[in-house]
Structure formats: structure tokens, C-alpha cells
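Job type: complex structure
Entries:
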Amino acid sequence: MSLTLEEAKVRNKELIDEVLGAYPEKAGKRRAKHLNIHEEGKSDCGVKSNIKSLPGVMTIRGCAYAGSKGVVWGPIKDMIHISHGPVGCGQYSWATRRNYYIGTTGIDTFGTMQFTSDFQEKDIVFGGDKKLEKLLDEVEALFPLNKGISIQSECPIGLIGDDIEAVSKKKSKELGGKTIVPVRCEGFRGVSQSLGHHIANDMIRDWVFDKTDPAKNAFEPSPYDVAIIGDYNIGGDAWSSRILLEEMGLRVIAQWSGDGTIAEIENTPKAKLNVLHCYRSMNYISRHMEEKYGIPWVEYNFFGPSKIEASLREIASHFDDKIKEGAERVIAKYKPMVEAVIERFKPRLEGKKVMLYVGGLRPRHVIGAYEDLGMEVVGTGYEFAHNDDYQRTTDYIKDSTLVYDDVTGYEFEKFVEKIQPDLVGSGIKEKYIFQKMGVPFRQMHSWDYSGPYHGYDGFAVFARDMDMAINSPVWGLTRAPWLK
Amino acid sequence: MSQHAETLIDHEMLFRKPEYTDMFENKQKNFEYKHPRDRIIEIQEWTKTREYQEKNFAREALTVNPAKACQPLGAVFAAVGFRNTLPFVHGSQGCVAYYRSHFSRHFKEPTSCVSSSMTEDAAVFGGLNNMIDGLANAYALYKPEMIAVSTTCMAEVIGDDLDGFIKNAKMKGSVPQDFDVPFAHTPAFVGSHITGYDNALRGIIQHFWEKCDARTPVPGKINFIGGFYGFTTGNLREVKRLLGIMGADYTILGDTSDIWDTPTDGEYRMYDGGTTKEEVRGAYHAEATISFQQFCTEKTLKYIESKGQEVVALNHPVGVTGTDQFLMEVSRLTGKAIPEQLLKERGRLVDAIADSQAMLHGKKFALYGDPDLMLGLTAFLLELGAEPTTVLSTNGDDSWAAKVQALFDASPFGKNCKVYPKKDMWHLRSLLFTEPVDYLIGNTHGKYLERDCGVPLIRLGFPIFDRHHYHRFPIWGYEGGLRVLVMILDEMFERLDQSTIITAKTDISYDIVR
């Protein structure tokens, strides 16, 4: 079923009208602003974003705590991140994001552990500050090699009036200036994960940068120092990216925050350039470093060879000829492998249609990788984007693409049912819904426990995974033969 | 270059390539400012000592790697056990994203649940408008027959009144006046997921029973409540099979056997199976209710008892004696004799245990998890002749510990066994070093203990994220006992093979017959 652009626009318009018709009037009016059909040449996608989700609609979004603890802070491996409040938040987010790291867990690294103050009723009634003080002492006693502690606030903290900043200051002083960071990322703040990212960025600024003696870590700068910002090393993504940057002659002095350490964070203001992958979650700190330390930043995209190539050149353009030549060398080195990967998988994927719904940067960033394999993205949307994300998205999407912001379970199901894409890329909550409908699916948050997908080594895995999903024989078994 | 188009490798092998290992070494050496290796080893060894254990057990404020979740998770579990019922959690929306993900990672199935998406303004003014709009939207979009409301800690801290809010929403026309909206307050800072299951289940039952006329007990009719457990699909199907064989007139209250096991046939079923409203109303007139998990249903049973039913609280029976007890209770309450077929099933489980008892005798186990599951598994291990030397629960209290101790005391194999209430998996880590065991039983998170302490893990808890399909098989009934037995034996044989697999060194004992 191949539609012309005009036919696709008409179909998508009807589809939007149909789903809006299912809502009560007030809700339908509000949702109408989040759904659109992209028109070539427009400067954004024509959808409103970063607005409160409607109650009761089954939004796929998470909360500020998820954005701070789950995304930004959690992967910093040699710190202990306290889920401060009741037990659940830390339990559900325990090690599920696959931020890979190297270290002796429980001794000098703590990434896949769940530390919580496990609030009880008395903590709600009498406040949790005393408990937090005691907790910090216990952390120090039992985990003496930790390099810092962050306090990730869950909903009750901001509601009961605890002063976690005062506790942090006091304990930091007692412990000889130890890095202790209070983070006000209560889940009710903001409208999604996004505010959590922002708050987390700001706390790094206020409680790490502003409190670190620049001479703390002995550090010999080089003219080629860069920091990877906004790569959480899911399935090793930051590693398959770092290797390319190093091969082109750059020196990666920090990873934010996948496999990252507090020392790397502290040293980042010494970088010559910040290279930013996930714009949404870490543009704030990049802008701050630009303003305060004069470090320029550049966005890049390491999904799929076309975008990798362009990004390597873009990054190199900030340096001298040595690095520019290095970029060309890297591109040439990987070219035969990448061509062989495309030769192997493209014939099996050519012309396949994809619908995406993810967070951060992926609803746009991965489009190039699909196109490198001859696939087409016909619908995309973000959980927690802002308007600047939708502006950037226009560089990637085609005329007639269906765009859905903060999609509801109902809408997404209807869209997929009618459009019948060959592949849906979204999250764990969506995966089994679409597979039961007989639609191939890949989780595009966790890489479906695969990865890496970043860089050239990652693209090979990505191509293989998309082929596996789409061309699995299981999709031929969903209808019993006697029901034809 | 690490990848080749024809021989693609995954992260498992990719990051062992020298290009990457050199890169890692370089990163560590130049940028991480790591502690010296000797210091790391020193601390690592120190964490294995009794001295460390003492410090570890002196903790009062810090919880590390707990084996429990929060109330609303249990409330969602209870709600989806009812026909065409949509769970609605009043409070912050991120919580619901977490419950849905948590269940989907375990069951490999979708879980439908909505949130009232309260934000800062609701924190100030209360979440009434969120309830009004939320119920209206959920009702219009997902066409449930019932919406079961519970709460996150946010709504509880600000003191939102569910009863008043729901009445108000009905007045505003969010849902019809006679539409069923049972509710339960489920504060995350009280109890755990099993408390939430209890509260929500009681809320649903109460919602229907309070409207029922006088109770007219039906002779021999019973209700069955399974409680919160990750193997619910297989278990409830097995219970239904057993009760069917018994010829019992029964109702499962909260039947989650189908919702987390829907087919892939081209149709997505948002709702499937579950107890109907009629069945819930009918259950009021049963003579008795059996709960398979006492600690999951304390308030629910109390309520049911107050209505005049006899209640029987079991502790997650597993194995021969446990299933015997269950069937005898069913027989007593229904007046039906236990048929020959079940006697044969029993005999087969005993046969299997007899065949394998030499493998099991005196083997030491550590186990952790929900209180009832711990009681059931402890009892089974003791009847296998194994020694459950360490039994730990994060959400088990002193009354639970006393019950475990009673099991120990009743068996010669329980002599050297110890129970640990209100402890977490970091406590357990200390215990595994100071009081070593042969095997560990728990959930997926136990794999970190398997790595740190070298104890093989048998996955029987919740959640299980890193193995597929376990929940489809029962561990209840004689057949379920067989499954647990085989899981334990498989791990033992595998372990034995692994330890004897080196050619010309350990393979003397690499036997073909075991």
C-alpha cells in the first residue's frame, strides 16, 4: 500500500480527526494542538509541546525524578545516588536503563544499585532531614570509596518542607568538603522528564562546578580536549562514539554521563569543545559552559553512516588540519565495513515504513540511520520535547510525516492500526501492544537490550536488529491457517 | 575495527576487543582519578568480613537494594484481575510509567493503567480537577466497565480525599452516576506492594458487597484469592484446574491469569479475562474465602470475615505438604472428596522428590522475597531435606519471622536456619559471605549477589526481568511443586557440570549418569 504524498496527507488528516473525535470535547481541543502533518518548508512541525499531559489518557511520559536520577545523575558511576523518599521510584528505575560502566560495583562504583531512604509514615509526619543526615553517615561508613553523593528528591520531599540543601551543606562541611548534591527533582515538578534534566543540569552547575577547586584534579590540558555530553552509554553507545573521536585525534576528557565519573564532570570546564548528542537533556549545561568558560559546543548525530560522516566533519571543523585529516581517515577506514553492512541488510529493508515515538533526540536522530538502510519514517513524536526539538526535526522528516507530541496510548494504537507500518520503534510499555497486533517492534530507548547503536560499530548492530525484527518468521504465524 | 558485516558481534563480545579494552584502560588511567587498585581490593575484602557485617546491620536510615516495591504497584496488580477494569492511579504521572514498565519487563506483556497526571498546581490546590478530567478522559477513550482508583504518595501527602473526589467527578458527569469506581488509598510510605494489593482488593470487594442485600450463603461455595505474585498466570490456571478437578463451586477474586498472557494473533486486547462484577457480587454469598497469601490479604480477609464468611489464610503453599493442606481445606469447605486423580499427582511429586533426594539432602539455601513466598518455599525446602539457612524479607515483619521460625523448629533440617525480617539485599550480601550457602533463591536483582558472592541464583521471586516466560508456568499445586523441584535440580546439575568440565583436570566427575 504505497500512497502518494497527497494521499498520505489526506489519510493522516482523517486519522487525526478520527482520534480527536474519541475524546471529550475539552480534551479533544487540547490534544488537537499536539497532532499534525508535516508540510515541507515549514520551520517547525506545527505541534505544541512541553505542555501538561491530560489526566486519564495514558500518557507515556515519566517524571522529573526519572529525568534527573534515571537519566542525568544515575549513570555517574563513582557517586552514590540516593532515591530520597518512598521505596518505589528507586526500585522501578533500578538498573533498567543499561547505562554500561566499568568498575567494582558496591566498592568503587555504584551504578546498578538502589540506595533509598525508604520513607515511612513517621518520616512524612516529622520530616526526613534527620534521617537523611544519618543516612549520609551510613553511606560514608559502608561505602568509603564513593566520590560523592546526590540526593534525588521524590514527590514527598518538596511537599513536606524538608531542607535537603541545608543537610547537604552541613554534611559536606563535616566530611571535609565532600561533594553532596541536593536535587529538587520531585516527580510532580514540570510536565515530564524534561524539567528533571534541566534541574539536574543546574545542580551540576551549582553544586559541582561552583564548588570545585579548579586545581583539585591534576590535569594536563591539550589542544584537542573534548567532552562527550548527553550520551548515557546505553548498551555501550558512548564507547562506540568515543572510539571514533579518539581515532580522529581528539582527546575525550569526559563522558556525560554514561560511564562517567565525578572527576570527569569536574574537569569538563577545561575542554576546548563540548560535543553534544542528546540536546534535550544537556543543552542547559552546554550553554552554561559556553557562557561561563567560553567553551563552544556542537551538536552531533552518530546514528547511521551519513549522519556520522557529517558529524565527524562538523566536529573536526572546530580544530586544525590534523583533526580534519583524522576525520577523513576515520570515515575512510570504516567505509568498507559500513558498505558491506548496507549491502547485506538494505535489500531486506528497502522501502519499509517506520513509526517512531521516543524521547530525547531519537525521534529525529535515528531517521538518517533508517534512511541509510533504504527505510522511510512516516510518523514520529516525542515524549518530552520542546519547540526547539520540533524545529530541529524539520531537517529530518519528509513532507506528509505524521507528528504526534506526548502521544496517548489510544492515539498511538489507532495510528499504527491504520498506517500499518513495517516497524514501530518506541518503549517497553508500547512494545507488546504492537507485537500482539502483529507489527514488528524494536525498543528505541533501551535498544531492546541490544546495542550499541551509536557510531559505526553500533550501526552494524542497528541494521542487524532492524532486519531481525522485521523479517522474523514469527510474523507469518500470527493468523491460524484455518482462519483465512 | 571491531565489526564485520558477516560476523556481527553484540555488546557481550564487542567490548572485549582490544581497541575497546585499551580505550577503557586509557580512560581510567587518565581521566577517572580512580582509587588505587590495592585500595579497591582492600575494601572489597573488608566488605566480606564480620566486622563489615556488624556495621552493615547497624544501619538505621539507609536501605540498599531492597526486595520490595511500593503500594500502588500492588493496587494495579489487584485491579487488572477484574473484567474490563482500568487501573487509575491518582497522583504524579511518572509513577504510572514506572508500574507499567515494571510489569511489562517481568511479564513481557502490556499493562494498561492511567494516571491523573498531577503537577505543581495540583500540589497546591489539590487534585480534584485532575480526578474530574481524568475519569472523563479514561472513560471516553478506553471504555472500561470499571475504573479502580488508587493513589501515589503525592496525593497522600497533600491529603486528597478519593471518596469525595469521585463523588464530585460523578456529579460533574465524568462518568455515569452508577458507573463503578472502587478506590483505595495506597500511600507508598506505608507497607509495600503487598499492602497496596490488599488495600485495592478490599476496596473493590467492599465497593460491591456494601451494596449487596442480605447474605444468603451458598453451601460449599468458596472464594479464592491468589495475592501478588509474579507467576500469577500459570499459578491461577493451575488453581482453577485443581478446583475444577475437585468439582468446587468457586470464584477467583482478582483473576490475573489471562491479562498478562494474551495471544499474538493480530489483535491487541487491552482487557482480557478477569473476575466479573457478577462474580464479585456472587462471591459475597460464598461460605468461605481461601487466601493463598496471608500477608497480601490481611485487611481483605478481615473485611470478608466481618461479613460472616470463614476465612482461611495460607502462606503460599509450595510442594507436597502445602498442597495437601490447600486441598484438604478445599475439601473441608466444599464437602467434596479429593479425587483419585489428585492423589496420583501427589504421588508423582513424591516420586520425583524420592528420585532426587540425594541431590537435595543437606544443601544450604538462602532465600529472600515477599513474606508468604518465603514461608511456602521454606516449607518446601525443609520437606526436600534441604536447609534454608538464611530466609530474609524486606517487607516481612516480626510476626512473619515468628512463622518462619516455627517452620524451622518443626523440622530437624531447620536447626541451623535463621530468619531476617525487615532486611535488604545488602544485608544479605554480608550474610552470604559470613554464612555461606550453596544456592540462592530470589528475583532478578539477586544476580548481583550471584556475581559478588559466587552463589548460583534460582529465579522464583518478583520481578524476573532477565529470564523469559517463567510466569506462564505454575509453582502451585503438585505440578507446580514439580516445576520448582526441576528448577532447583537443573541449577544443581548445571553447577556440577560446570565445575567438572575442564579436560584432564576436573572432568573425572563429568558424569553421563547423575
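Summary: The CA atoms of residues 84 and 396 of chain A lie 40 Å apart. The longest helix of chain A spans residues 321-349.
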